[in-house]
Amino acid sequence: MQKRTLETRARLIAVATALVAENGYGALRTDEVVKRAGVAKGTFFSHFKDKDALMDLLIGAGIDAHLDQLAKAPPPETVEELVALQAPLLHFMTQERYVFDVILRLSGAAAVAEIGAIATTFGRYLDLTVHWFESGKYRSDISAELQADGMQAFVTQAMALHFCALHEDQSMEARLTVYLRAWLCPGS
Amino acid sequence: MQKRTLETRARLIAVATALVAENGYGALRTDEVVKRAGVAKGTFFSHFKDKDALMDLLIGAGIDAHLDQLAKAPPPETVEELVALQAPLLHFMTQERYVFDVILRLSGAAAVAEIGAIATTFGRYLDLTVHWFESGKYRSDISAELQADGMQAFVTQAMALHFCALHEDQSMEARLTVYLRAWLCPGS
DNA sequence: TCCAATAATTGACTGCGGTCATTTAATTGA
DNA sequence: TCAATTAAATGACCGCAGTCAATTATTGGA
User: Fold this and answer.
1) Which residues form the domain of A43?
2) What's A99's domain CATH number?
3) Is the pLDDT of residue A186 over 80?
4) Which residues have Cβ atoms closer than 7 angstroms to strand C?
5) CA–CA–CA angle A128, A131, A133 (5° rounding)
6) What pLDDT, on a 0 to 100 scale, did the predictor assign at position B47?
7) Which residues in chain B show pLDDT less than 70?
8) Is the pLDDT of residue A145 over 80?
9) A115 and A178 housed in the same domain
10) Which of residues 160-179 of B touch A (CB under 8 A)?
């Protein structure tokens, strides 16, 4: 790999980041990226398999930054803390419908070989939350892994309903709190 | 609305249905639909807002047919029955990655005014399953609505992981069974 | 230093979804 | 029956992601 490659790639990412900051993720056009970066269309696609691959990087970095915060904090001891701690991440992932769609599409890699940034962050997310449940503060009848897995299902559901006109009565946090209480503290 | 309108619309849907039968949902091209139907490109888009709107109809009809089966069956009394009963629907929704993506995108309407076929079926699905839980065979500490809502979250999670290379060890049914046991029969 | 061999870049081109001013057909009222 | 009005259909055109044969830059060996 040549130095030139890294420079071009870095420029493409820098330009894309700037454009996202200006107009959001959904408004990003590859044409605009290559124009500002001063390269040809084809160059973009020799650096990124497709537009999703670039989005994977950009959004993945955003998720990772939020996970850094989660990793710093002490394990949440109540459902309320659990929700409050994750709220910034949820808001990041639902800032635009387009962002949420990309995340859903890329959070599970179709092939082991093509695990991208977002899929990696989801693995990290799971590891992190498994750790929270290993303390045994929540359910003891099922494994920490299953508790974490289930939480992810409810987080996804809460985010999806956020974009649903029929469910605008409740906030994402309120909905998630109800879900997690039922999931993590059954019978109480 | 003229008779001609209904005929054209019916022909477009018939052609699309046939093309899907031949090559699957993801391979459908609007150009091919209009060519076979003998109409112009613009005609297609005066009948359907976009390609998704046609897919909404076709896939929504498929889901509805499966729900008809669910509605006929007696309420499942165990988690195993619950999973077995829903299995055909899950396989329909995951027959193609493209189909699953469309369903995720359209299962929640962005505005009340634009509730489509798939969003409607999801409402029906929820009503149907709420009914199952109203018998009180599962959890009594939370409402039937919440039980149904949670099941939908786990069903979605199980389907999503079906497309994930890292989770190919388990079948969708097996994964869902584990989830639902933990969700519907905690502590046992 | 020069010459392959390889890596990176180019931009015209394609595929496909979606638009819109214009044309054609159906409907209604006099 | 014949305008006038409204509804439907048309197809050239656009936006934008993604491709690929041709070109240019880099590198490593003689």
Assistant:
1) 1-48
2) 1.10.357
3) yes
4) A 1-2, 4-5, 7-8, 38-43, 45-47; B 2-4, 28-31, 41-42, 45-46, 49-52
5) 120
6) 98
7) none
8) yes
9) yes
10) 160-161, 163-167, 178-179
